């Protein structure tokens, strides 16, 4: 569990500084109940989309 917390923390930092794929994953993990509440995760994803004009499909495809 400790390793997972460290990874999530690192992903959150990457998301905060603008890494789009990390931000998308942090939001998705939050939607699944990992790391934050679903409401916070949805708000994060929506603000990410509005703030950065992120292409969710393109980001999802890049993660594959």
Characterization of this structure:
- The protein is mainly α and 64 residues long.
- 78% of the residues lie in helices and 0% in strands.
- The protein has four helices and no strands.
- The protein has helices at 2-16, 20-31, 38-52, 56-63.
- The longest helix is centred in the N-terminal third of the chain and has 15 residues, at 2-16.
- The protein is globular.
- The termini are far apart.
- The mean pLDDT is 75.
SSE topology:
Blueprint lengths: L1 H15 L3 H12 L6 H15 L3 H8 L1
Helix pairs in contact: 1-2, 2-3
Helix content: over 70%
**CA-to-CA gap between the ends?**
25 Å
Count of domains = 1
**Class computed from helices, strands and strand pairing:** mainly alpha
How many separate helices? 4
Q: What is the general shape?
A: globular
Overall pLDDT score = 75
How many extended strands? 0
Tag the structure with descriptive keywords.
mainly alpha; 4 helices; 78% helix
Task: Please outline what is shown here.
This protein has helices at residues 2-16, 20-31, 38-52, 56-63. With 64 residues, the chain is mostly helical.
